[in-house]
Amino acid sequence: MTEAFIHPDAVIGVGCSIGRFAVIHAGVVLGDGVQVGDHAVIHAGTCIGAGTRVGAHAVLGGDPLANRRVRRKPKAVGPLRIGAGAAIGCGAVVLAGTEVADGVLIGDLASVREGVVIGEDAVIGRAAMIELNTRIGQRVVVQTGAYITGDSVLEDDVFIGPAVATANDKYMGLSPVVYRGPYVERGARVGSHATLLPGVRIGAGAVVGAGAVVTRDVPAGAVVVGVPARPVARWDTVPDAPAHAARMQDVPARKEQARKEIIPDVPAEGGEA
Asked: Which ranges in the chain are annotated with CATH 2.160.10.10?
């Protein structure tokens, strides 16, 4: 029976659990109480904070790939860093050069490219795709199957619905361009199956309706719908919107309390490795 491979140069913290057939490469650092699922692969130099869970068949810290057709060739990147109390789903792939903060959830089969920064308590849903050099703020939710193109910015508390699509190249590969993904300001929400075209800016607290195609900037607080998206209301005039906004003020504190309750204390010594 073949068990896990752990490189002699890897540093394994107290109370870690390593699944069967997992591969831990040289220079990996696992904080105390990290759980690594069966068949997971953690590439050289990856650092994972205490209490983080890595699902079966996840692949963490690998280098980006390219062929002759790819215009943006991979550059040298540093190791992948994942904070404490995070959860990485089964079959998820997170490349080197990315920083994942404390308490982040990356769902099953999600993919995160190099050069991405993900803030505390963000959620990257099942099978979502986050392309290179994207910045994702704290408490952002990117739901199932969403595609966040490279060079995008999602500020704190943004909500991205299922199957949202974004773009950063308005010429679709026909000529050299400066890539500009969408910029979504704090607290904005984008409904399922909406499309954000290259370089559009969604203002703070704005709402993009399901299925909308956003071709130009959306003012802060506006509600836009349709193809192409047009303003139809202000969010502050929508019934129950103020009450919802007030409830959101408590979210960081409630999430922090919940995290303290679900992350177990790590034993001071001993434990399985």
From this structure: 1-66+77-127, 156-266
